[in-house]
Specification:
heterodimer, A: alpha+beta, Helix Hairpins, HSP40/DNAj peptide-binding domain, three-stranded mixed beta sheet, elongated, B: mainly alpha, Multidrug-efflux Transporter Regulator, Chain: A, Domain 2, two-stranded antiparallel ribbon, 4 helices
Chain lengths: ~325, ~110
């Protein structure tokens, strides 16, 4: 496994004071917090910063980590020394387990090899019944999948006690039914699929937050979808029958005469299924034919001569 | 490593679904006192009389979890978290609308 230089992650010197480390952590946490950050890779960065702070904030962990020596560099091949941390006793997260890491917030193998598990987890009372924690994970699905529903196999990782008293991450696959008509941000609950209970305690639940990926064609709002429908000027002016895409397949639709750009037409019940199902809206836009041939130019010239049209009439004179 | 695939029953927490305050606290890893404070600030609207009997809409669980993360990770206080959650939602809403408008403008400009 690779060594991680926690001082480098936070950008502080090895001798930095606890106060400085806290200040730097606050700044970086604010910068990379996945809920607020617009930085690329915010989530991965935030996890690294959190992991580094988890070690450097705690005097015991920091002292043990410092024993590894200043000659170690990030990325260097690393094995914990045999006498690692003798005389130290780690007790998981100092906050007393408040806010243990979630399924998607596991620390690195490097951290686990030194401090056992991802904090919080390893401090369960011996043999005492305690309910397992709820876990959370995010699932991204395509709009088509939200429309049709279907089965999805998820790979879940979770910490598990090993016989040596430490923790390992085990991977298990579960098949989950995605019901048709899920909306963005909706939650699925998988009872008993969170952290296993300790002793006779019940297992926690796994919550999946469903996110629907942005689609090239459809813009989603709740169960309604909006499609931009470009029309030729004569189609908008005279009316036309055009083929438009819907989630269930293309349909023919009548465009009334005198349609204008920005108007919305509705196809009832053509959005995501549900009770009631969503609608599809077609937002009209007028596409101009390019004047890129003598014939096209002649048409425009004829219009300019023969059509009394002032697009800036509302400016007044 | 186990690779056996098991099929799991899923329960959809639909918009109309309500969770007990105990469930909500467990799922978002916050104290009931924080939920009470967030309810006073109007970030969540539980139903029921006494806080221990409260029920919270499944839709609001996302808000509570975001608030919980901000409080835990950034050290903001409860009203700061409530404000941030509302602003983040407003920002996301605006970004979605902006994307839709940009698409509409592009479609007209490209003449397709």
């Amino acid at each position: 496994m690779e060594f991680r230089d926690y001082y480098q992650t936070l950008g502080v010197k090895r001798g930095a004071s606890a106060d400085d480390i806290k200040k730097v952590y606050r700044r970086l946490a604010r910068k990379y917090h996945p809920d607020v950050s617009k930085e690329p890779n915010a989530e991965a960065k935030f996890k690294e910063v959190q992991e580094a702070y988890e070690v450097l904030r705690d005097p015991e962990k920091r002292a043990a980590y410092d024993q590894l020596g200043p000659e170690m560099k990030s990325g260097q091949e690393f094995r914990p020394p045999p006498d690692w941390a003798s005389g130290f006793e780690f007790r998981g997260r100092p906050q007393g387990g408040r806010g243990g890491p979630e399924v998607d917030e596991q620390f690195s193998d490097f951290f686990s090899s030194l401090f056992g598990g991802s904090g919080g987890f390893s401090q369960a009372g011996e043999g005492r019944a305690r309910g397992g924690r709820d876990h959370h994970a995010r699932v991204d699905i395509d709009l088509e999948e939200a429309f049709r529903g279907g089965a999805r196999t998820l790979e879940l990782r979770r910490p598990q006690h090993n016989p040596d008293g430490g923790t390992d991450l085990s991977t298990h696959a579960v098949k989950v039914t995605i019901p048709a008509g899920l909306t963005d941000g909706q939650q699925l609950r998988l009872a008993g699929q969170g952290e296993p209970g300790h002793g006779k305690g019940r297992a926690g639940d796994l919550y999946l937050e469903v996110h629907i990926r942005p689609h090239d064609l459809y813009h989603l709002e709740g169960r309604d979808v909006t499609v931009t429908l470009p029309l030729a000027p004569w189609e908008a002016a005279l009316g036309a029958t055009v083929t438009v895409p819907t989630l269930g397949g293309p349909v023919q639709m009548r465009i009334p005469e005198k349609s204008r750009a920005g108007q919305k037409l509705r196809l009832r019940g053509r959005g995501l299924p549900g009770d009631p199902p969503g609608d599809e809206y077609l937002q009209l836009s007028i596409a101009l034919p390019p004047a890129d041939s003598p014939k096209a130019r002649a048409f425009y010239e004829q219009m300019s001569r023969e059509l009394p049209f002032d697009p800036r009439a509302h400016f007044g004179s | 490593m186990t690779t056996a695939i098991r099929t799991i029953e899923t329960q959809v927490l639909a918009e109309g679904e309500w969770l007990s305050v105990t469930q909500v606290c467990r799922a978002s890893q916050i104290d009931v006192a924080v939920v009470i404070e967030l309810a006073e600030l109007g970030l969540v609207c539980p139903r029921g009389t006494a806080p221990q009997d409260w029920q919270v809409s499944a839709r609001e669980l996302v808000r509570l979890r975001t608030a919980a993360r901000l409080i835990r990770d950034l050290g903001v206080n409860v009203s700061g978290a409530a404000l941030a959650v509302e602003l983040l939602e407003a920002r996301r809403d605006l970004e979605t609308r902006l994307r839709a408008l940009e698409r509409c403008v592009q479609a007209s400009a490209a003449g397709k």
